[in-house]
């Protein structure tokens, strides 16, 4: 690591509490103009607000490790001038396909200045997938890092107005003339994308007012907290990352933008940067919980904010036992883990469930939705589910996406009775609390009834030696039914035996009246295929396991396998 804010330096809030309250009440503030609105009321516009640990080239001759709010606005104006000269205008789509860093927020700000739409794309997306994605979006241009540019289909570079490498592109030394766009709440400002774990990435539209609704709600609920340190350990292209930065800029905080989602890096960053809030994916929290909780200094952390897949109870409990929380004018040991259910399409966390060391309700409980969210449970036939009956989650809220870019069919199919179908299976109990049991694509249809993988995984995670686990289906069942297989990985996997695990797992599942497993596979952690956001690629894993079972001798990563007699 190269640079962190010195630990002796106080964070001076760049905004007063009163101005913060006025900002969140101002209806003209939105995702497309946040930086300029923040600059207009900033008390310390030259104080660094976005930090990195590695230098990044944001244009030819522009190497930075940090940006102040004034520098962010200036640089975005200079790039907006460049885009304007290239003929980019309101509602044109430009792809941002680059390494993680400050590039994503700079170009988001630049493009929204002129009303264009930033298609911010994960730099880890394979070049062929990205090329198809950009063709679907009908992008007018592409800005990239060297690695990503080389990965693109060469023919695509000739189909668009420009495809440039950011580090080699000269921009005006000072902002030049362009027409600044005045946003309406419905104006699209960004196209994000789903993880692509179940097919091609879905292009999710985010609008100026719609996307900002959740951020505005966060600003309203945070009270008088301003000027904090925060660690962002999510991919910089993720819409949660952009939203996290927007929030921090508006409330005068500093953000350390990590260049990796490594839990090892995050642990060191927490100790040296001392953030009050950490935002990461579950894959980062697993490492923090199992390798560092109790040994590393997490005393500065007040909030752990999870995004992407849901986190496991075992990992949450280890993290919330550390950190500190203000209480009666002092600090008490213990932090809060925010594990709310959200997605790119929801625009914001819809269920703001929070866990502390006193929490007792887990079991995939996602709590109750925000007061501005209408959540319902639908059966396959479109009727409403009864209490404790599993069905499809439907959401109505001001933060829901307007739809999928250039895909009206998918947009229409994602709705029922005016509700957006999230792709999640849930049930609601007598107290109005929701429980997340699975993704619709992951349910395993067995002869004993549906096997909900999330519920089964959470139950099996009770074993101390399991780091993580994954339930996937097999096609080997009778009468078209599938057979569940638990794929287990652990830091101690080399000493684990599948036979006793299978017996223990099935006894546990039987006690809960849940479908039992057909088999257990113990594998090396590195053998788990993951997508660009760290999610487990269940289809790929299923195929890999099936092939390995046929020829275990050639699959060194399959450490042990045991199945029941299914005859």
Describe this structure in words.
The structure is a single chain. The chain is α/β, with parallel strands linked by helices and 567 residues long. The chain has 3 domains: 17-259, Rossmann fold; 363-439, Luciferase, domain 3 (Roll); 444-563, GMP Synthetase, Chain A, domain 3 (2-Layer Sandwich). Helix content is 29%, strand content 25%. It has an 8-stranded mixed beta sheet with strand order 2-1-10-9-11-12-15-16, with helices on both faces. Strands 17, 18, 19, 20, 21 and 22 form a 6-stranded antiparallel beta sheet that branches. α9 (239-250) links the parallel β9 and β10. α2 (34-41) crosses α3, α3 crosses α4 and α10 (263-273) packs across α11 (282-292). It starts with 16 loop residues before the first helix and ends with a strand.
By DSSP, the count of extended strands is 28
Q: Give the helix proportion (percent range).
A: 25-40%
* Alpha-beta content class: alpha/beta
Number of helical runs?
16
Q: Biggest sheet, in brief?
A: 8 strands, mixed
Approximate strand percentage: 15-25%
| Strand numbers in spatial order across the main sheet | 2-1-10-9-11-12-15-16
**Cα radius of gyration in angstroms:** 24 Å
CATH homology-level superfamily of the largest domain: ANL, N-terminal domain
State the name of the first-level CATH class of the largest domain: Alpha Beta
Give the total of domains: 3
Mean pLDDT: 90
Instruction: Please mark out the parts with pLDDT under 50 across 5 or more consecutive residues, or reply none.
Output: none
Q: What is the correct CATH architecture of the largest domain?
A: 3-Layer(aba) Sandwich
CATH topology of the largest domain: Rossmann fold
Distance between the termini: 57 Å
Keywords: Ligase
Domain AMP-dependent synthetase/ligase: 52-405
GO molecular function: long-chain fatty acid-CoA ligase activity
EC number: 6.2.1.3
């Amino acid at each position: 690591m190269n640079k962190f804010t010195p630990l002796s330096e106080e964070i001076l809030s760049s905004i007063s509490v009163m101005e913060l309250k006025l900002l969140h009440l101002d209806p003209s503030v939105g995702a497309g103009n946040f930086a300029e609105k923040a600059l207009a009321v900033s008390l310390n516009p030259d104080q660094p607000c976005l930090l990195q640990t590695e230098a990044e080239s944001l244009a030819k001759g522009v190497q930075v490790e940090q940006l102040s709010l004034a520098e962010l606005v200036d640089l975005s104006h200079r790039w907006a001038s460049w885009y304007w000269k290239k003929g980019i205008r309101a509602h044109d789509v430009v792809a941002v396909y680059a390494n993680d860093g400050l590039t994503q927020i700079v170009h988001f700000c630049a493009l929204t200045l002129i009303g264009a739409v930033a298609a911010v794309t994960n730099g880890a997306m394979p070049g062929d997938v990205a090329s198809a994605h950009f063709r679907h979006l009908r992008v007018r241009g592409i800005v990239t890092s060297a690695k990503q540019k080389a990965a693109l289909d060469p023919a695509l570079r000739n189909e668009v107005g420009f495809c440039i490498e950011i580090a080699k592109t000269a921009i005006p030394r000072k902002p030049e003339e362009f027409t600044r766009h005045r946003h309406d709440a419905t104006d699209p400002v960004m196209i994000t994308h789903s993880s692509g774990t179940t097919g091609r990435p879905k292009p999710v539209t985010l609008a100026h007012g719609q996307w900002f609704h959740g951020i505005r709600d966060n600003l309203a609920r945070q009270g008088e907290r301003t000027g904090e340190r925060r660690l962002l350990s999510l991919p910089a292209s993720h819409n949660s990352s952009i939203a996290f930065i927007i929030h921090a800029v508006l409330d005068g905080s500093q953000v350390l933008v990590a260049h990796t989602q490594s839990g090892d890096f995050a642990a060191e960053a927490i100790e040296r940067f001392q953030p009050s809030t950490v935002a990461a994916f579950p894959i980062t929290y697993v490492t923090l919980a199992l390798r560092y909780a109790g040994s590393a200094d997490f005393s500065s952390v007040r909030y752990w904010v999870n995004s992407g897949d849901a986190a496991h109870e075992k990992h949450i409990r280890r993290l919330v036992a550390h950190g500190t929380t203000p209480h009666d004018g002092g600090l008490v040991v213990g932090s809060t883990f925010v594990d709310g259910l959200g997605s790119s399409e929801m625009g914001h966390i819809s269920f703001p469930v929070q866990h502390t060391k006193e929490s007792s309700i887990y079991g995939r409980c996602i709590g109750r939705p925000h007061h501005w969210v209408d959540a319902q449970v639908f059966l396959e036939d479109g009727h409403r589910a009864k209490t404790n009956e599993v069905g499809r989650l439907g959401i109505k809220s001001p933060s829901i996406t307007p739809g999928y870019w250039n895909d009206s069919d998918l947009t229409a199919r994602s709705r029922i009775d005016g509700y957006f179908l999230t792709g999640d299976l849930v049930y609601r109990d007598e107290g109005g609390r929701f429980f997340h049991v699975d993704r619709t694509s992951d349910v395993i249809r067995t002869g004993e009834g549906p096997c909900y993988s999330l519920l089964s995984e959470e139950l099996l995670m009770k074993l101390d030696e399991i780091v993580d686990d994954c339930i996937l289906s097999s096609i080997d069942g009778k009468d078209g039914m599938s057979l569940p297989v638990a794929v287990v990985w652990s830091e101690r996997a080399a000493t684990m035996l599948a036979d006793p695990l299978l017996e223990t797992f099935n006894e546990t599942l039987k006690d809960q009246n849940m479908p039992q497993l057909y088999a257990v596979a113990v594998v090396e952690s590195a053998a788990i295929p993951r997508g660009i956001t760290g999610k487990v690629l269940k289809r790929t894993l299923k195929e890999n396991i099936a092939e390995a079972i046929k020829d275990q001798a050639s699959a060194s990563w399959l450490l042990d396998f045991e199945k029941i007699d299914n005859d």
